[in-house]
Write a structure and sequence with these properties.
The chain is mostly helical. Helix content is 59%, strand content 2%. The chain has a two-stranded antiparallel sheet with strand order 1-2.
Length: 174
C-alpha cells in the first residue's frame, strides 16, 4: 500500500505542477516572456528586415491618415503632398517585398490603389471636398479589399475621426 500511496502522491504532484494556472481566471496576469540575452560584444549586427506589417504600419497608415485629415480640412497642397507620399511609400514597398504570401505585390497595389488614388488626386486638383471624400472612401475600401484578399480581413482601415498627429496643423494656409 505504501508504494501505491507514493505513486498517487507523485502523480498528484505532477498533475498539480503541470496544470499550474489552469484554475485561474481568464484575465489573470500572465508572466512576461523572457527578455533575450544581449548578443556578444563581437557579434556581427544582423540588419533588420521590415515585414509587410511593419511597412504598412510605418509607411502607409500614417500617410493614409494624413491624406484624410488634409482633405477633410481642404488643405489641398498638403493633401496633394500626402498623395505623393503614399505613392512613394508603395513604390518602396514594391521594391522591398515584390511578393507577399505568394502574390505579386505590384499587382496587389495596382488593383487596390490605381483607380482610387487617381480619383483622389483628381479631386485634390479640382479642390472638390465632396469628390475628395468619395474618392478617399474608395481608396480606403481598396485597402480593405487588399487586406481581405490576403487573409487579413480583420485589418480594417477607415477615415480618421481625429488626428494622431497633435504636432501638425492640417488647416489650410490662407
Amino acid at each position: 500500500m505504501n508504494k501505491r500511496c507514493a505513486r498517487v502522491a507523485a502523480l498528484t504532484a505532477l498533475v498539480l505542477v503541470g496544470s499550474r494556472g489552469v484554475g485561474l481566471p481568464q484575465n489573470a496576469p500572465q508572466p512576461a516572456p523572457p527578455i533575450p540575452a544581449p548578443p556578444p560584444a563581437n557579434a556581427t549586427p544582423v540588419p533588420y528586415v521590415m515585414t509587410m506589417g511593419d511597412m504598412m504600419n510605418t509607411l502607409v497608415q500614417p500617410r493614409h491618415a494624413k491624406l484624410g485629415l488634409a482633405g477633410h480640412a481642404e488643405n489641398w497642397p498638403l493633401a496633394g503632398y500626402a498623395a505623393v507620399e503614399i505613392r512613394q511609400a508603395f513604390a518602396g514597398i514594391v521594391k522591398a517585398q515584390p511578393k507577399f504570401r505568394g502574390m505579386p505585390v505590384p499587382d496587389l497595389v495596382d488593383a487596390a490603389l490605381k483607380q482610387p488614388l487617381g480619383a483622389v488626386e483628381a479631386a485634390i486638383k479640382q479642390q472638390d471636398p465632396q469628390k475628395f471624400a468619395a474618392a478617399y472612401d474608395q481608396l480606403t475600401q481598396g485597402c480593405n479589399a487588399c487586406h481581405a484578399s490576403l487573409d487579413h480581413p480583420f485589418v480594417v482601415m477607415k477615415a480618421p475621426d481625429a488626428s494622431a498627429f497633435p504636432n501638425q496643423d492640417f488647416g489650410p494656409r490662407r
